[in-house]
Amino acid sequence: MSKSLNIKEILERTIKHFEKYGIQNPRLDAEVLLADLLGLERIQLYVRFDQPLTKSEIDKYRERVILRSKRVPVQYIVGHQEFMSLDFKVNKNVLIPRPETEHLVQAVIKFLNEAKFKDPLIVDVGTGSGAIAISLAHNLPEARVIGIDIFPQALEVAKENGKRHRVEKRVKFIKGSFLDPIIKANLHPQVIVSNPPYIKRSDLKNLQPEVKFEPRVALDGGEDGLDAYRQIISGAEVLSSGGLLAFEVGIGQSEEVATMMEKSFDKITVLKDLAGIDRVVMGIKK
């Protein structure tokens, strides 16, 4: 990449390069990586096509292009991802928030807005970046939220995101396995929410190259993909009466998760995502 390249030229070269390496969205990724580097919105690149880039900018962009060519996710390269219209820091220690998970957050918001609990306590199991916990706190100003994760590195990211969105006074991130900290503290939340690992162990080897950069523990759901659901449903006895248990589920898992919940939960509901796939399973504690 020559130091005399302008924005249009470097994008054209990068798009061809990404196509050669089988990148799924070559134009989008090339533009996102460059816009982020230059501190611009993507649309601004188009009105600055003739703007020459400095050698330093080209060198830094080249480093990003090399990483993306190795199938490192764009979100890890730029260090952030949007979720529920909020910007979250992400790195290799946390799962990248997905758009389909917004259905889970929206379902919890709707439930609490209708349930009229006073100062509800929400527990987010396997909080990762804190995207679910923080989005709930942001949209439910009366709510208190506890995000649980087994890994200190993930909790560091979550706490930073909590400060970024100014909800640190109402969102507490703690180290623990599943619902153990809640059970030990004898707390009785009104909502337990989780996007647990749900990929079958045998399917992990078939994942897209990008997904393999994400923490395996956030993906591996055990032999049948349902290990985490069993653990959380078992511990969900701590829910207050009339409380909500809400899960994101993988493709083809909704019926099995709903069946697991039947013993202790009423009004079990399955919600679809925008692709028409069963994505959220939730129920009310008996």
Secondary-structure blueprint of this entry?
Layout: H1 7-20, H2 26-38, H3 42-46, H4 55-69, H5 74-78, E1 80-83, E2 86-89, H6 102-115, E3 121-125, H7 131-139, E4 144-149, H8 152-164, E5 171-175, H9 180-184, E6 191-194, H10 227-235, E7 244-248, H11 254-261, E8 265-272, E9 278-285
Helix pairs in contact: 1-2, 1-4, 2-4, 6-7
Please give a structural write-up.
38% of the residues are buried. This protein folds into two domains: 7-70; 82-285, Vaccinia Virus protein VP39 (Rossmann fold), CATH 3.40.50. It is of the alpha/beta class and 286 residues long. The chain has eleven helices and nine strands. The model has no long low-confidence stretch (mean pLDDT 95). Helix content is 38%, strand content 17%. A seven-stranded mixed sheet has the order 5-4-3-6-7-9-8, sandwiched between helices. Strands 1-2 form a two-stranded antiparallel sheet. The protein has helices spanning 7-20, 26-38, 42-46, 55-69, 74-78, 102-115, 131-139, 152-164, 180-184, 227-235, 254-261; strands spanning 80-83, 86-89, 121-125, 144-149, 171-175, 191-194, 244-248, 265-272, 278-285. S-adenosyl-L-methionine binds at residues 126-130, 149, 178, 195.
Instruction: Characterize the largest beta sheet: strand count, sense, and whether it forms a barrel.
Output: 7 strands, mixed
Q: Which CATH-level-2 architecture of the largest domain? A: 3-Layer(aba) Sandwich
> How far is the first residue's CA from the last residue's CA?
64 Å
CATH class of the largest domain: Alpha Beta
Mean pLDDT: 95
Shape annotation: elongated
- At the fold tier of CATH, the topology name of the largest domain is Rossmann fold
Walk across the major sheet and give the strand order: 5-4-3-6-7-9-8
Structural class: alpha/beta
SSE sequence, one letter per element: HHHHHEEHEHEHEHEHEHEE
Q: DSSP helix count?
A: 11
User: What is the number of domains?
Assistant: 2
β content, as a range? 15-25%
Number of strands: 9
Rg: 21 Å
Low-pLDDT parts are none
The CATH superfamily of the largest domain is identified as Vaccinia Virus protein VP39
